[in-house]
Amino acid sequence: MTGQAHDRVLFQGKDFLLGAVAGTGLFDLQQMGLRAFPASTACWRGFQVTYAIEDGFLMLDSLVATFPDPAPLILGQAPHTLSSPHPCGRLQYHLHQPTPFTGRLRILHDLIRPLYVHGGFQEDWKFNEVHLLHIEHGRILSSRDCSQDMAKVREMLREKKPGAVLTPQEHKVLQAYQALQDLP
């Protein structure tokens, strides 16, 4: 299986990938009664969402997807056809809508290439730059660079042999990582 195309988040002038999510209110194609189709082995979902942080809010920026003809309107918008190939489809929707998301998002930048796994979505700890965003009704309440925390998780996971028992401190770190909380 090929590594899958993460949703994207435009933040601080960079193109981040959406990692772990704890909350509700992100864009959901299925809630609209729509189903996209895989365009490539890199996008089995058949779509990729791009969010943007604008003026302190999480915005739904665009969607690239594969639909059979005729392509549906999404949030009142018709798609345009991309001129160059994209792993998730040939149709792009410019949506520019606020999101009602409430919860926490981990966003990722700069994948450490030797840690890449050829299948599924890449895990958050495999990136050099990681931010944790706290959001309420689309408004960014806080953002924290937790790249050093991810480095701790990365070292802990690299050094453990399969089946090794975690120390109590390592267990706390791993639980906090999995719950999208600040590490102890």
Main attributes?
mainly beta, 13% helix, 184 residues, nine-stranded mixed beta sheet, 2 helices
Q: How many H/I helices?
A: 2
Low-confidence runs of at least 5 consecutive residues? none
Looking at the structure, what is the overall shape?
Answer: globular
Number of E-state strands: 9
Query: What's the helix-strand series?
Result: EEEEEEEEEHH
Number of domains: 1
Major sheet summary line: 9 strands, mixed
Mean pLDDT: 90
Strand order of the largest sheet: 5-6-4-3-1-2-7-8-9
Distance, first to last CA: 35 Å
Radius of gyration: 18 Å
Structural class: mainly beta
Oligomer: single chain
Helix fraction? 10-25%
Strand content: 35-45%
Structure description:
The chain has 184 residues and is mainly beta. It has one domain. Helices cover 13% and strands 38% of the residues. Helix 1 packs across helix 2 (168-178). The radius of gyration is 18 Å and the shape is globular. The two termini are 35 Å apart.
Topology:
Elements: E1 8-11, E2 14-24, E3 47-54, E4 57-65, E5 80-81, E6 91-98, E7 102-111, E8 127-136, E9 139-145, H1 147-159, H2 168-178
Parallel strand pairs: 1-3
Antiparallel strand pairs: 1-2, 2-7, 3-4, 4-6, 5-6, 7-8, 8-9
